Structure formats: structure tokens, C-alpha cells
């Protein structure tokens, strides 16, 4: 994050939004975005992500706060003057126009000379590897092809800022992954800035330079994908990003950012102490399924808790085990599929082990 604010390209400053003059659906949103970043707004449905995009695009006014682009406030600027490219889930191509005409449209609106339009349209058709499709109509394309055209149409007038609201939501998994790659490739090649909205955490993790996790109109954490995954700021983020087990307990001691936690049933666990944790307070320990191991294991460990095997199943690249602590807490474990995978029957006792650095204690 630059301390020199002149480097900030896009700035949200304490932005608020209410649709009914009573409740705020975006509560106090502040974010500095550098040129060329790929920022994803990630969160459950109704958490305020699209509202933020709509305010940035200018289709919704702000209830409070300010948005600026390149140092200029745009909160009173008409949408078309903000020069922002947009891609939505429902492609919104003009059905009566050919693909080439669809791509030419934003250039014609901006009064580009005819010869230049033709050249630019061909360039962008080639960029999305659809050089031969210029004469077709949207109805003659597959969903994935239409979405590539929609992407090209948003990029073709070379805006510095592109907004995408769940653009891949209507595509099946395989196509979605191809398009994620396609968007990332174009972003790296052309260097525009992206604000991307999704509720799909895998998509967010694989595409973004930073992710802002929304819940109920409030950003819970804004960080690079690896940091969000490895160091979630609170239990909401730990639960929303990836998978986690949650073990309730009581904090016995905190020393050097490490918490000693007593778990009902007699076990003691050491965990990384998150901000706000207090000795004597209640907490919940989060530990990811892939960070747990079942004894005997060649992995090093700090924590060791006995548990009863409930069930397990084969998932191909890994095996998922379910165990239960003496206090009833259910724990799931992902073990990479190799031939040495332990064989348990329901009711068998096992010992689960993991490292202190791989679990975090959050206050509750
Ligand atoms: P998300 O994109 O994260 O699913 P939205 O920004 O669409 O969330 O919605 C946030 C909240 O604002 C929701 O409670 C939604 O019902 C409400 N909302 C969104 N758009 C409007 C609107 N045009 N009028 C009134 N309420 C709206
Ligand atoms: Mg939305």
C-alpha cells in the first residue's frame, strides 16, 4: 500500500449506501487501489458487493463518502464520462448486431474514425481468438464465446478501469476456469485495473492481486490471496475462504502471540493468538483439513489430540476422514491419496496431530 496518496489510482473514501434511508447496505467502505491491480470483492449474496460496483460505475449515488479516480472525485460525474468498461453475467450483447458490429459500437459512440474502428475490431477479435467470428450474430455463439465477446467489448475502447460483476456465473465449471485464465491473460497483457465481484472463493483466490472479503456491508479483511488463506483476520474469513475446522475452547495463557487453549474433554492446544484474544476468554481454534495429520505420520507436530473415527471416503486425489473429539467436536481431515493412507473402522481411536503455526485462536 503506497503511503504517498498521489500514487493511488482509485480511492473509496468512507463510502456508504442506503437504499431506504434507514439501513446501510454498504457501511463504511474505504479502499485504495493502485493502477493495474486486480481487486476482487468477495462475499456472500446480499453483502453489498454489486452496490459498490454500481456506485463506482455511477448507476447508483453514494449516501456518504467519496469515490475518486486519478485524484478526481467522480461521485458527481455521469456514468458515461467515467470511461469505465463493464462486464456482467448476462453478456448484454446486442442480438441484432453481428459480433464485429457489437465490438465497433463503443468505438463509434466515442467517434473513432471508421478505418481505425475496423482495425481495432480485428485486433480485439484476434485477441480473444475469435478472428473468424466477426460476421456471426450472438445467437450463433456458445455461452463461453459470447462472454469472450462481452469481455472484448468492455476492453475495446481501452478504459483504464474494468468492472466485472459475476461475469462467469452462468458458465459451467470447465468453461469458467478457461475464462478465468483468459481474463488473467488479458489483464497481464493489457495492464488495465480490475474491480471484480464474485461469491466464488476459488475464482477470487486464483485471479486477484488483492481480495476484499465482504460481510453485511463491511469489509472483514482486504489482503493478497495467500495472506487471506494463511492469516485470516477473524473466524468469518477463516470460514469463508477455503475450509476450516472450528474447535471451541477457553484461553488459558497468551505468550509471544501464542495461545494455550483448554478444550472441554481435557485436551490442551497451542495456537497462534489472533488480535483481540484475552486470557480467560472464550475462543474458537481454526485449523484447515489439509494441515491435520493422523498418527503415525512422518510430519512434525506440536498438538496431539485423541479422537474417534466416524467415517472416511475416497475423493480421488485425497481421502477425507471424519473424526470426533471426546467433547463431540467433529473434525475433518484431508489426507493426500497415497498407498499408505491409514485404514480405520467406525469407532476406532486415532490421534490427530498438527503444528501450532497452522491453527489460529479467535476470540468469540
Ligand atoms: P451482493 O452483490 O453482495 O449480492 P448487493 O449489493 O446486490 O449484494 O445487495 C446488498 C443489499 O442491498 C441487499 O440486501 C439487497 O437486497 C439490497 N439492494 C441491492 N440493490 C437494491 C436496490 N436497487 N434497491 C433496494 N435494495 C437493494
Ligand atoms: Mg451482486
Low-confidence stretches: none
Ligand roster: adenosine-5'-diphosphate, magnesium ion
Q: What is the overall silhouette?
A: elongated
Integer tally of domains = 2
Describe the protein in words:
- The protein has eight helices and 20 strands.
- With 364 residues, the chain is α+β, with helices and mostly antiparallel strands.
- The protein has two domains: 228 residues, Rossmann fold, CATH 3.40.50; 119 residues, Beta Barrel (OB fold (Dihydrolipoamide Acetyltransferase, E2P)).
- A six-stranded mixed β-sheet has the order 6-7-8-3-9-10, sandwiched between helices.
- Helix 2 packs parallel to helix 4 and helix 4 runs parallel beside helix 5.
- The longest helix has 18 residues.
- It is elongated, with a radius of gyration of 25 Å.
- The two termini are 30 Å apart.
- The protein binds adenosine-5'-diphosphate (ADP) and magnesium ion (MG).
- The site of magnesium ion has 4 residues, from helix 1.
- Magnesium ion binds next to helix 1.
Features:
6-stranded mixed sheet; OB fold (Dihydrolipoamide Acetyltransferase, E2P); binds adenosine-5'-diphosphate; 23% helix; Rossmann fold; alpha+beta; 5-stranded mixed β-barrel; 8 helices; 364 residues; binds magnesium ion
Amino acid at each position: 500500500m503506497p503511503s504517498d496518496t498521489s500514487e493511488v489510482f482509485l480511492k473509496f473514501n468512507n463510502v456508504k449506501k442506503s437504499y431506504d434511508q434507514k439501513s446501510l447496505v454498504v457501511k463504511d467502505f474505504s479502499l485504495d487501489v493502485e493502477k493495474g491491480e486486480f481487486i476482487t470483492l468477495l462475499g456472500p449474496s446480499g453483502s453489498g458487493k454489486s452496490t459498490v460496483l454500481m456506485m463506482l460505475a455511477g448507476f447508483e449515488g453514494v449516501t456518504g463518502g467519496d469515490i475518486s479516480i486519478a485524484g478526481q472525485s467522480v461521485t458527481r460525474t455521469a456514468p458515461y464520462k467515467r470511461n469505465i468498461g463493464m462486464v456482467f453475467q448476462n453478456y448484454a450483447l446486442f442480438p441484432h448486431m453481428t459480433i464485429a458490429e457489437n465490438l465497433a459500437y463503443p468505438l463509434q459512440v466515442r467517434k473513432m474514425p471508421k478505418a481505425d474502428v475496423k482495425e481495432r475490431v480485428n485486433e480485439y477479435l484476434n485477441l480473444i481468438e475469435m478472428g473468424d467470428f466477426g460476421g456471426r450474430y450472438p445467437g450463433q455463439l456458445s455461452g463461453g464465446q459470447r462472454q469472450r465477446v462481452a469481455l472484448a467489448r468492455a476492453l475495446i475502447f481501452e478504459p483504464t478501469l474494468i468492472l466485472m460483476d459475476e461475469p462467469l456465473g452462468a458458465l459451467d465449471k470447465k468453461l469458467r476456469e478457461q475464462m478465468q485464465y483468459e481474463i488473467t491473460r488479458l489483464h497481464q497483457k493489457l495492464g488495465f485495473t480490475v474491480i471484480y465481484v464474485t461469491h466464488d472463493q476459488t475464482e477470487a483466490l486464483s485471479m486477484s492481486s488483492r481480495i476484499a472479503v465482504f460481510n453485511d456491508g463491511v469489509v472483514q479483511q482486504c489482503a493478497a490471496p495467500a495472506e487471506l488463506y494463511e492469516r485470516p483476520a477473524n473466524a468469518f474469513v477463516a470460514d469463508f475462504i477455503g475450509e476450516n475446522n472450528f474447535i471451541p475452547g477457553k484461553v488459558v495463557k497468551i505468550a509471544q502471540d501464542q495461545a494455550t487453549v483448554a478444550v472441554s474433554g481435557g485436551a490442551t492446544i497451542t495456537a497462534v493468538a489472533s488480535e483481540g484474544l484475552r486470557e480467560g476468554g472464550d475462543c474458537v481454534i481454526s485449523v484447515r483439513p489439509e494441515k491435520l495429520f493422523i498418527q503415525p505420520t512422518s510430519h512434525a507436530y506440536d498438538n496431539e489430540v485423541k479422537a474417534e473415527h466416524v467415517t472416511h471416503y475416497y475423493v480421488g486425489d485425497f481421502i477425507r476422514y471424519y473424526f470426533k473429539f471426546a467433547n463431540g467436536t467433529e473434525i475433518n481431515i484431508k489426507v493426500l491419496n497415497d498407498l499408505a493412507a491409514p485404514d480405520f473402522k467406525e469407532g476406532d481411536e486415532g490421534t490427530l496431530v498438527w503444528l501450532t503455526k497452522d491453527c489460529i485462536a479467535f476470540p468469540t
